[in-house]
Specification:
By secondary structure, the chain is mostly helical.
Length: about 80
């Protein structure tokens, strides 16, 4: 009976230094989006994450209320 050799399902990525990265398929390392699309998405994400004045006021009020509650609980 002839022995069957087992082959890996994924070709290794020799340029990756870590064993787990070497085991990942090549399509993981490709850039899925062109540069102009990625720049547009980054600008949109930055705009969404920018905090307005009301956001800071609500954050500060919540932080102060939590600080007072914890201080009263400890004391």
């Amino acid at each position: 009976m002839r022995s069957m050799t087992r082959r890996a399902l994924v070709l290794t990525q020799e340029s990756a230094g870590h064993w787990f990265r070497r085991s990942l398929p090549p399509h993981v390392f490709t850039d899925p989006l062109p540069g102009d699309v990625k720049d547009g998405e980054n600008r949109e994400a930055a705009r969404r994450w920018r905090l307005a004045g009301g956001d800071w006021q609500r954050f500060l009020a919540t932080y102060c209320a939590g600080f007072v509650a914890v201080s009263l609980f400890i004391a």
